[in-house]
Structure formats: structure tokens, C-alpha cells
């Protein structure tokens, strides 16, 4: 029974990874169930066995992607003790690499264009942002306690932090130049530090 569950989990992950790549290559609207099966190297019947339909696959893909990102980011900041170190590590993970960021945001923005009419997408997206805001709030509250940040409303500040992050990444994406990736990460850090009223040490 354990082996069967493990096999099913691996097969579902295989299909989700294939779906992600298919959307990267073809766009949300251009992907069919046959495309997903072809990318996964399985029959169309296999995809129908593990998922109800194409929309079900896409909903699970969005949930899998956003959960994986959040879990990675949380693991990274938990290793750091100080707020500033947590923030820097957080941004290191958010600005993962030009390739990873480009692929994720192209897929994610495609999903966002479908959110209005899809309750499941709305729920997954809301949970993703709740998670993101939670990280921002944790960093803002810790920094305030340490006296390195001056923040009156950590909940609102956390939302603003995520706005800066998404804004910088989307701007970078529109530039389509890998060399600018580190520059945008640096600008993002400076923007957030300004938002947090970072108390810089005297040199």
C-alpha cells in the first residue's frame, strides 16, 4: 500500500512538472491534455486517471508551484536569527535565478489572467499571498523588536513588501535581460529597507 501511494505521488508530480513545462512553452490557452501527456511521456488515459480534467491539473499545478516556493522560502529564513539576514535570505530565494523567475512568472501571470472566473485559482492564489504576507510580517515584527526597523503596521507593511517584490520582478521580466536580474534584486532590497525604515548602523 505504501509503495502504491508513493508511486501515485511520483506520477502526479511527473504530470505536474510536465504541465508546467508545457505552459512555459505554449502558454496557458495553448496547452491541451494531449500536450500534457506528451510532455510527461505517458498516455492521455494516465493523465485522466490521476486528474479529473485539464482544469484540475492546472489547479493542482498552481497549488504545487506556490506551495513549493513558500516552503523553500520558509526553510531558508528559519536558518537565520536576525531580521536583516532573514530579509536578505528571503530575497535570495525570491530572486532565485533568471531562468527560474522567468519561467515561474510567465506561467503565474498566465494563471492570473484566468483567476476572475475560477474559484479554485482564486483560493490557491489567496493562500499563496497569505503565505507571502506572513513571511513579510514575521520579518517586519522581528526587525521592529530588534530596533533595526521602524514599522507601525506590520500587516500592511508585509503587503507592501510583496508589492515591491512582484513589481521589481515583473519590471525585470519585461526588460528580458538576464544581466539586470541582480540589479533588480538590489533595488528590491533597497526599496524594502526604505519601506521598513531600516536603521542603518553608523560607519
From TrEMBL:
What are the alphabetically sorted keywords of the record? DNA-binding, Repressor, Transcription, Transcription regulation
The Swiss-Prot or TrEMBL record marks DNA binding at: 32-51
> Does Iron-sulfur show up as a keyword for this record?
no
Q: Which InterPro entries match?
A: BetI_C, Homeodomain-like_sf, HTH-type_Tx_Regulator, HTH_TetR, Tet_transcr_reg_TetR-rel_C_sf
GO MF annotation list: DNA binding
Q: Which Gene3D superfamilies match?
A: Tetracycline Repressor, domain 2
Instruction: Specify the HTH tetR-type domain's residue ranges.
Output: 9-69
User: What is the protein name given in its UniProt record?
Assistant: TetR family transcriptional regulator
Organism name: Halalkalibacter nanhaiisediminis
Upper lineage: Bacteria, Bacillati, Bacillota, Bacilli, Bacillales
Amino acid at each position: 500500500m505504501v509503495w502504491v501511494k508513493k508511486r501515485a505521488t511520483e506520477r502526479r508530480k511527473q504530470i505536474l512538472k510536465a504541465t508546467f513545462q508545457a505552459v512555459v512553452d505554449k502558454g496557458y490557452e495553448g496547452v491541451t491534455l494531449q500536450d500534457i501527456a506528451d510532455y510527461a511521456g505517458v498516455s492521455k488515459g494516465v493523465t485522466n486517471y490521476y486528474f479529473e480534467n485539464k482544469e484540475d491539473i492546472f489547479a493542482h499545478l498552481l497549488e504545487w508551484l506556490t506551495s513549493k516556493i513558500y516552503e523553500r522560502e520558509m526553510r531558508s529564513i528559519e536558518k537565520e536569527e536576525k531580521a536583516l539576514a532573514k530579509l536578505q535570505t528571503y530575497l535570495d530565494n525570491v530572486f532565485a535565478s533568471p531562468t527560474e523567475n522567468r519561467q515561474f512568472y510567465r506561467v503565474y501571470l498566465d494563471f492570473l489572467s484566468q483567476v476572475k472566473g475560477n474559484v479554485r485559482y482564486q483560493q490557491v492564489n489567496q493562500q499563496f499571498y497569505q503565505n507571502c504576507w506572513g513571511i513579510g510580517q514575521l520579518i517586519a515584527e522581528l526587525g521592529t523588536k530588534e530596533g533595526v526597523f521602524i514599522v507601525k503596521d506590520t500587516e500592511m507593511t508585509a503587503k507592501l513588501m510583496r508589492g515591491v517584490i512582484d513589481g521589481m520582478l515583473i519590471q525585470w521580466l519585461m526588460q528580458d535581460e538576464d544581466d539586470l536580474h541582480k540589479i533588480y534584486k538590489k533595488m528590491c532590497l533597497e526599496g524594502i529597507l526604505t519601506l521598513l525604515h531600516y536603521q542603518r548602523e553608523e560607519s
